[in-house]
Amino acid sequence: MLRSMTGFGHSEYTENDITFTVEIKTVNHRYGDIYLRMPKQLSVFEEQIRSLVSKRIIRGKTDIYITYDNSSSQIQEVILDEKLAKAYCDALRRITQSLGVKDDINASTLARFPDILKVEKQDNEEEIAPILLKAVDLALDELIEMRINEGEKLKESLFANLSAIEVFLGKVQDKAPFVVMEYKSKLEERLSELIDIQMADPSRIATEVALFADKCSIDEEIVRMQSHIIQMRNMLNAGSPVGKKADFLIQEMNREVNTIGSKANNLEITNNVVELKNEIEKLREQIQNIE
């Protein structure tokens, strides 16, 4: 299936009174970058989360937001920040000395200051890990479903672009054989204005026309363009990941069209080349959204 790089997934999963809420959003990006925002105590699971996500999302910028609530009966620990307590104590003593107020510093006073004492639960990593990864997996399921739906809509648009390219390329192909004939006719007209056409050397005219025909021949470019269109359709039907391959193929299509434009000395072909470039640019913009 073809997948867009834009999507959003959300999950809230609870097990054993442990709840994880996970939000994942992805946007277009040339590479596969993952940005995690989660509580500090979950940082030990970062590599596991990255590994899980990178297996399912190949390309795009991925932002992951995780919140966590543990209501299970775990062992609680009171943590003392001794350095902070000492700093508070020193500050209170300086106040006493400079202002001459009574010094009644005690443990109860210090304990009331912010961040001196913290109560933390001792999480069981072996219990938390599978619950966390399950929550991430559920959010990924929703995200990928959205990316697939968006990708199928993009596929329809891309196929429409390819069909338009085929139409304009067909017009170029139909006109190409007449370019040499028109050149020969114009050459004979110009010679007849200058000299008696009967006196002109037919072999010299034929040589000039042959050189022009070789110089302006676009048959190879047309065949390669048709091959590129077939390859692009096959890649899109095969499904993601195709983004980087499609980028390269579009560069080749642009190269062939530019060559056709530079070779073909014909206004009608030039106009169709402009339309081809316009359709290829639309194709390129849409491919930027594909994984």
Molecular shape: elongated
Total number of strands: 6
* Quaternary assembly: single chain
User: Biggest sheet, in brief?
Assistant: 4 strands, mixed
Per DSSP, the total helix count is 8
CATH level-two architecture of the largest domain: Up-down Bundle
- What amount of the residues lies in strands? 15-25%
Rounded average pLDDT: 83
Give the neighbour order of strands across the main sheet: 1-2-4-3
Would you state the CATH class of the largest domain? Mainly Alpha
Order of helices and strands: EEEHEEHHEHHHHH
**Percent of residues in helices:** 55-70%
Structural class estimated from helices and strands:
alpha+beta
Number of domains: 3
Radius of gyration: 35 Å
Low-confidence segments: none
End-to-end Cα distance, whole Å, is 11 Å
Q: Kindly report the CATH topology of the largest domain.
A: Butyryl-CoA Dehydrogenase, subunit A, domain 3
What tags apply to this protein structure?
291 residues; alpha+beta; Ribosomal Protein S5, domain 2; Butyryl-CoA Dehydrogenase, subunit A, domain 3; 3 domains; 4-stranded mixed sheet; two-stranded antiparallel ribbon; 8 helices; 62% helix; elongated
Any overview of this molecule?
It is elongated, with a radius of gyration of 35 Å. A hairpin with a 2-residue loop joins strand 1 and strand 2 (18-27). It has 3 domains: 7-73 and 123-148, Ribosomal Protein S5, domain 2 (2-Layer Sandwich), CATH 3.30.230; 76-120, no CATH class; 149-287, Up-down Bundle (Butyryl-CoA Dehydrogenase, subunit A, domain 3), CATH 1.20.140. The chain is built from 8 helices and 6 strands, in the order E-E-E-H-E-E-H-H-E-H-H-H-H-H. Helix 4 packs antiparallel against helix 6 and helix 4 (125-194) packs antiparallel against helix 8. It is α+β, with helices and mostly antiparallel strands and 291 residues long. The chain has helices at residues 46-56, 82-99, 107-111, 125-194, 202-216, 219-238, 243-263, 267-287, and strands spanning 7-15, 18-27, 32-37, 60-70, 76-80, 117-121. The mean pLDDT is 83. The protein has a 4-stranded mixed sheet. A two-stranded antiparallel sheet has the order 5-6.
